[in-house]
Amino acid sequence: MSHSETKAKCLKVMNESGRVGNNDAAKQDGLNFYKYMFGHHPDLRVYFKGAENFSPTDVQNSDRFAKQGICIRQNLMLAIRILIDTYDDSETFKAYARETVNRHIKFKMDRTLWAKFFTLFVNNLKEHTTVDEETEKAFQEIGKAFSDECIKHTVALNLPN
Ligand code: HEM
């Protein structure tokens, strides 16, 4: 698959369940990701200070995730779309991966999480729309290129984790 075909496959699914529009349906897509993460990977809640004990229902109903958090949730979906969209523009893609790492330094994340993220993300999408085998491979391919650059950058920055 060419880079542009990989990108197109991912964007098709993003347009179904990873939307960035300024409307309730798109906002719910972002919210769904956090509900999935908090429900299926509760160990990751430790990074979300103040929400360490949240259930998916708490995520749906909390001010942080349902109101004040709207920007953050939308930003995550937007960040993923930017990665997908720049996959055929390698320099921008890699620079944006490094920028994402920079923005997360303060959370002191374990660097192995960068390699796990896209799997988690696709598994969330699968709960809301159809993701065929080829499309899943496309997400994994982008996720691998992303995490390779992220991990290289965490090492270059000499981050402890
Ligand atoms: C914000 C953790 C992966 C993009 C945050 C926040 C945490 C966090 C704790 C602050 C939000 C809050 O406390 O309410 C994590 C963890 C990840 C992960 C544990 C991996 C498992 C990613 C990835 C991307 C991303 C892969 C991009 C594709 C963002 C964005 C924000 C954010 C855009 C909004 C704040 C900002 O722009 O600095 N993340 N993150 N995150 N994350 Fe992540």
TrEMBL record:
GO terms for molecular function: heme binding; iron ion binding; oxygen binding; oxygen carrier activity. Residues 4-155 form the Globin domain. InterPro entries: Globin (IPR000971), Globin-like_sf (IPR009050), Globin/Proto (IPR012292), Globin_nematode (IPR012085), Mb-like_M (IPR044399). Heme binds at residue 104. PROSITE patterns: GLOBIN. CDD domains: Mb-like. Pfam families: Globin (PF00042). Keywords: Heme, Iron, Metal-binding, Oxygen transport, Transport. Belongs to the globin family. This is GLOBIN domain-containing protein. It comes from Onchocerca flexuosa.
